[in-house]
């Protein structure tokens, strides 16, 4: 089935550790996105990528890093510099330019908790 | 920057009633989209309305857009318990050239059976 797979669903991070969240899509989409969602809040954009080997910072990129070496993969690393990483992380993709009326497809999300 | 803001933040209605949620935004847009999120899940696209459209329907959903007031509304008619979810508006701002969507804070809808 076509879709976006995020893993793991639940992840626990110790203080000072880096952790990487995986996002894979088989929709052949060019654009991919990472959003953060805090409980009861909306989504905030961390990073996005319009094409392989290129990505841009979103609104809250500090303490995060990404790579886009393959079209289907867009992993997010939460570094130790992110002081409050406990949140729900959502990966998404889009098949074309949003201004053309394309929509965003989301994965099922990953819960990250600092212990 | 937070582009979309929904109100109310929470809405509780009885099954069969209509639910109306509003969204306001700040900058010029190419289009506006509405998404639904069940608790602890990813978002699912519901409907898109372009900046040159004023109203759009999809099944029990009706969306309006008033670009002069920078606002949109989502109406769900004859609501069902299964409509219980959070609803978000998302804007594709002209200033970002269609490269990203900015989401609002969402409206938590509860439909009581």
Keywords:
heterodimer, A: 115 residues, mainly beta, seven-stranded mixed beta sheet, four-stranded antiparallel beta sheet, 11 strands, 0% helix, globular, B: 113 residues, five-stranded antiparallel beta sheet
Radius of gyration of chain A, in Å, reads 13 Å
What class do helices, strands and sheet pairing of chain A give? mainly beta
Low-confidence stretches of chain A: none
Uncertain regions spanning at least 5 consecutive residues of chain B: none
Question: What average pLDDT do the residues of chain B reach?
Answer: 92
Order of helices and strands of chain B: EEEEEEEEEEE
Number of helices of chain A: 0
* Portion in helices of chain B: under 10%
- Considering DSSP H and I runs of 4 or more, what fraction of the residues of chain A is helical? under 10%
Q: How far do the termini of chain A sit from each other?
A: 35 Å
- Biggest chain pair contact, residues each? A-B, 31 and 30 residues
Count of distinct strands of chain B: 11
Compute the CA-based radius of gyration of chain B. Answer: 13 Å
Total strands of chain A: the figure is 11
Number of helices of chain B: 0
Largest sheet of chain A: 7 strands, mixed
How large is the share of residues in beta strands of chain B?
over 45%
- Multimerization state: heterodimer
Shape of chain A: globular
Order of helices and strands of chain A: EEEEEEEEEEE
Q: How much of the polypeptide of chain A forms β-strand, as a percent range? A: over 45%
